[in-house]
Design a protein that fits this description.
The protein is α+β, with helices and mostly antiparallel strands. The chain has 13 helices and four strands.
Length: 475
């Protein structure tokens, strides 16, 4: 082979030897997600990609559903059974495929042409390589690796979101069920009192005003029971959606009441620093800015060259009664920037990078504020719920008992008794709601320190960036 033809192929082979190609991981890049779930959530996660994976996950879910659900078991079921979370893990696999594809060198192009006429036959062979794509391969592979790490953080954020929503839905469902049962008990007592009032009225021992008071109290409680039951059913359905359950799995049992409050609230004096260090959405924003910085550098480096290809050409000409003539050479194709000097691409990349930096700074400021606000809400919710449990409900029970004694002794009328009953129902309802709010505040506090805002706008932005950067690598 002629040295002029060997040279471009030798350059291509040398460049290929310098590039390191990425390979697919055994778990599809799920290792950081598994580590996060085990350390922060104390739970297991898995990507369901085979029938064996699906069977194992379903078996684990069935075992958890045999017992009344707790907040922890509800979270574990959601992490194993929520199909939206599985879709996020599939997106992680897509990101890994794009990373591997971006690390591969561009495929060379081979062409063969044959032209015959006037007794002559001309055969031309070409080997074409995209030198620009090959030269920028290490930087493009580095950017793709950053995108893959960002995709892993997005999967972690989605895992945390599903776990947090499951825990919130569990507390709401249990509180709604507890409130519905309490009001049902109050309704039964009000029904008995209304029936007794009607009998006393028939005998003339109770006037119409007191009879009407008993009846309207029973009607009011009945309305509240219907509302509470509807709320309990809706909250249970919300929990069902969070857990990804359907069919026979809907017959799970919930706890009858919320857990008691802890003896002492959490003390978190360095919550701002901890949130800045641990927040997943902030880590996603950091990688977004770093990746765009690298992309901006790549765009700036190639602003004047859009296409640079080197072709090794070999041509053979045959004519009748003459020996074949072979010709070899090199052809270079270069796009000349007569109109577009790359300023548009550079300006676009620069502004995109600066926008990411500004969003990162804004997110860091917001993270501090969200953490402070979440902790203040948590402490206030603890103080309020504790006040109801230790002060209001015991005092309300004393008042209720004393009022009933005075009513039986005919020292007060039925109106005072009904007023006390309404106040007791209102206090108990408020206590249940305050206890629910505390557990929700604790869940939100954990999300504010580790996970991110409920809207998940950072993860959504990162997911959009990953999708936009998913063009296949030039091969």
């Amino acid at each position: 082979m002629d040295t002029r033809f060997k040279r471009p192929l030798a350059v291509l082979a040398a460049a290929l030897s310098l590039t390191g190609c990425q390979t697919f991981s055994p778990d599809g890049g799920l290792s950081p997600v598994i580590a996060f779930a085990g350390h922060e959530l104390r739970k297991d996660v898995t990507a369901i990609r085979t029938d064996a994976d699906a069977t194992a996950a379903h078996t684990a879910v069935m075992q958890l559903l045999k017992r009344p659900l707790t907040a922890d078991s509800a979270v574990q079921i959601a992490l194993l059974n929520n199909r939206g979370l599985q879709a996020a893990y599939n997106e992680l696999g897509i990101a890994e495929a794009r990373m591997v594809g971006a690390s591969l060198p561009p495929n060379p192009t081979f062409s063969l042409s044959r032209i015959a006429g006037s007794g002559e036959i001309e055969i031309e062979r070409r080997v074409i390589a995209d030198i620009l794509a090959l030269a920028t391969l290490p930087m493009r592979a580095d950017v793709a690796a950053d995108r893959f790490r960002q995709a892993q953080l997005v999967a972690i954020a989605e895992t945390l979101r599903v776990a947090t929503e499951a825990r919130r839905a569990y507390h709401r469902a249990v509180a709604a069920g507890e409130l519905a049962r309490f009001l049902s008990e109050a309704q039964a007592a009000a029904r008995t009192a209304a029936q007794l009032a009607r009998r006393l009225g028939e005998t003339g021992a109770l006037n119409k005003l007191d009879q009407a008071r008993e009846q309207v109290f029973y009607a009011d409680v009945t309305t509240r029971v219907a509302t509470a039951r509807q709320l309990a059913a809706s909250e249970r359905e919300r929990l069902v959606r969070a857990l990804g359950l359907w069919g026979r799995d809907l017959n799970f049992k919930l706890a009858n009441r919320l857990r008691v409050l802890p003896r002492q609230p959490l003390a978190m004096p360095t919550i701002e620093a901890e949130a800045v260090r641990r927040r997943v959405d902030l880590q996603i924003a950091r990688i977004e800015a770093e990746t765009l910085a690298k992309s901006y550098g790549l765009t700036n480096a190639t602003r004047f060259v859009n296409l640079l290809e080197v072709a090794g050409v070999s041509k053979t000409t045959r004519a009748p009664d003459t020996p074949a003539v072979r010709q070899r050479g090199v052809e270079i194709e270069l796009q000349v920037p007569l109109f577009d000097f790359g300023e548009v691409r550079v300006r676009d990349a620069k502004e995109t990078y600066l926008a990411a930096v500004n969003r990162l700074v804004e997110r860091a400021i917001n993270v501090r504020s969200e953490a402070r606000d979440a902790y203040r809400t948590y402490r206030a919710a603890y103080d309020i719920a504790s006040h109801y449990q230790r002060e209001v409900l015991p005092l309300r029970q004393i008042i209720s008992d004393e009022t009933l004694l005075r009513y039986n002794a005919m020292q007060i009328d039925v109106f005072a008794l009904l007023a006390e009953a309404r106040q007791r129902i209102a206090a108990t309802t408020a206590a249940i709601e305050a206890q629910r709010d505390f557990w929700l505040a604790e869940t939100n506090l954990f999300a504010a320190v580790v996970g991110g805002s409920p809207s998940g706008e950072i993860a959504a932005t990162a997911r959009a960036s990953l999708t936009a950067s998913g063009e296949p690598a030039p091969h």
